[in-house]
Design goal:
The complex is a heterodimer of chains A (542) and B (202). Chain A is α+β, with helices and mostly antiparallel strands and 542 residues long. Chain A is built from 18 helices and 17 strands. A five-stranded mixed sheet of chain A has the order 1-2-5-4-3. Chain B has a single domain, classed as Rossmann fold. A four-stranded parallel sheet of chain B has the order 1-2-3-4. The N and C termini of chain B lie far apart (63 Å). The chains are: A alpha+beta (542), B alpha/beta (202). The structure holds iron/sulfur cluster (SF4). The site of iron/sulfur cluster (SF4) has 12 residues of chain B, from helix 4 and helix 6.
Chain lengths: 542, 202
Amino acid sequence: MANIQETIAKQFAEAAFTEGDQLLVNIPDAKWHDLARFLKETPELSFDYLVAIVGMDWTDEFGCIYYLTSTKYNTHISVRVATADRENPMLHSVTDLWAVAGIYEREVYDFFGIVFIGNPDMRRLFLRNDWVGFPFRKDYDTDPEVNPVRLDHEAVEDTTVTYVEDETGKVVKKDVTIFEPDDFVVNIGPQHPATHGVLRLRTAVDGETIKKIDLYLGYIHRGIEKLCEGLGYPQTLHFTDRLDYLSAMNNRHCLCLCIEKALGLEVPRRAQVIRVMMDELMRISSHLLFIGTFCMDLGATTMLFYALRERETILDILEKTCGARMTFNYNCIGGVIADLDENFVADVKKFIEIMPKAIKEYNKIFTGNVIAHNRMDGVGVLSKEDAVSYGVTGPSGRASGWACDTRKTNPYGIYSELEFDEIVRTEGDSMARYKVRIAEIEQSVRILEQLVDNIPDGEICAKVPKIVKLPEGHWFQQVETARGAFGVFIESKGGTSPTRMKFNSPGFCLAGAIDHLTRGAKIADLITIGGSLDYVVPDIDR
Amino acid sequence: MEVTTKGMPYEAFKDNEYIEKLADELRANGTNVVVGSLDKLINWGRSNSIWPLTFATSCCGIEFIALGAARYDMARFGWEVARASPRQADFIMVAGTIVHRMAPVVRRLYDQLAEPKYVIATGGCAVSGGPFKNSYHVLKGVGEIIPVDVYVPGCPPRPEAMIYGIMQLSRKMRVERFFGGVNRQENREEFLRNHPIDNTEE
Ligand code: SF4
């Protein structure tokens, strides 16, 4: 840490440093782009992965906190950039350095109205283009009269705006066309059976070849982050179950970890083991649903029935303990909410036995199938550099050769004590993404095998005060969900509810990479590529 | 500690005040013998092959997938023909949160359904906005924009509850009159009159 600080301080006299759970660099906006380039391109720093951009409204200032990671050295840093201008807040864009910044900055613009100079596309992302105001600003007018439910259709936009600096340093607004006038644009979604939810892709095609995709989000944007600001910490937990509902346990684990980190709370060993087991069961069930729906998209409907058969077994196990088939509400601050069902161990053992056989069956039916190979081999290839630049984590990132498993790189809970392999492939195509998931199921079963006989006795939850108050500060925590690295950011002013809570979802980056991945592919491959990324739309939109 | 889940007793399942009231209302003026028998025949067919629209926005949709798979197997009831196009479907099962941006799309899907059409609101979100009721971008129930026939509460409702909901719909269809004078249709037209779509471009 110290030498990172020194290296930066040598180059940037303006930089101020704060220690926290990560080193925080304060930098004025004028120097931000230079610092960003320095952080990315200096060999001994090489912060090549932009984890998150958290938009902030500190009431006197607008700004962002950038979270960066170096995939080479596994070091972390955060940068705070702010502007005091509340009328026309502007910051410099870093889209040219990290591709994922493009979509992150659009999100910040949509919620806070901060314009990014140099971002090629400054449109709203989640909200309608006729939406009034910026909802995450603290002075936002929540009156439903301002933004009533509109039943008229949105106007189709074929142009966007970008803000650039001219030679004198003045910022000018420029119109940019999204599609050429003679482009043939097909609208896919939001109601389309193969987009896995309500995603809308306006696709320009040349014959059967995709030229460009313009992504529309927000058809399931629920404003969860804003809702959290008015709630107590225990009340915010249940939202995480409903973000990426297929990784409900993992998401909730992450938020609990973040709050526990802020409180300095020690979680009893029994609860930690239970949490990891639940996470892995969840991961398997999510991958199973992926196999089912993905194969169904490719025309192999039978696989849905096979995969869901095993998934139901897991849901039974979870249901006995948690009482629900989805939205489990199981993790809580300090541990877990209820003890395991008496049959839990026996059920998991039974499951461990059937799963390897089931995988063999899947491979026999589908993986080796010649049609499956034709549709998946070499389709939607993502290189490792692009995976890092677009922030594509999880099985999709590992299929491109990027060892990005948070369980390995930054172990949390008891993962550091467990034996399991990180599955990394190098092909980067849809087949690799599919195979990584199959192999990850095997690894998760391996983890369960190690734990099922070693669940220690003891408390299931630490002593937590009735009213949870976090000290002043901010924290960031990541875990590995079934889709990739999921992050939670909390800023507290010392009260019972957060002043800002941000969920950094893996699906958002996956969606951001669709345009890049599908350029030049055939339109039928769009289904394969989208399916193989395995995003969950409520997780993207939050 | 043994936890047992009691199924719904059969009497309660058959106890359906609401449907009976509807049936009484419809039969208040008596029924023509010929048309009445035809009605019965057609409704018997209709109510046993209700085709849903493949439509899901979030979590509740996954339970709808589970409904289609082997364990809950909605094919037993003739509902398995999930259509991707609203023009071929009989009802929308609104599974999931409906937000402002989605509202006009849902309305359009509803308008595109072929008559006679029905709506089931599944899950807390579609019923009332559920856990996101206070959000700036979430509708307080899909009933704000389209007329709903059956509400199924839960977060998410279990597949069994969904089955019950669709069965309720099929009962409702059975007491309706296919030929003329269907009370429910009048209510619906009134609803749509009160919820106009403004400045449509077409
Ligand atoms: S009712 Fe619950 S499970 Fe259903 S969509 Fe809403 S939050 Fe998800």
